[in-house]
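Study this:
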Amino acid sequence: MKDLSLLSEYNRDEVNSYLKKNNNRNILNVNYWNKRFFIDEYSKDKKNDFERSFTNTFLLTKNNRRKNFELKKYFIFNYNSFSEKNKKEIIENYN
């Protein structure tokens, strides 16, 4: 899967389907979010789906400090890629 070009929509869909199959197992893994982010960057129409998933995961990890910290770092590094609505929601819960 690593060698597939993300320029092809078919390849993006293949990688994305693989990631979704492993969603529950990898949802707290920052590398998972990085891969999803890169794929969704190529497919702007699906970006909202990614942001909603990330925001929900961020909110659910409040009690898991280590995972929440990793997601906070991810959010900071990719701040400009999030919509204003999701930025606001994450920042309101960023304690």
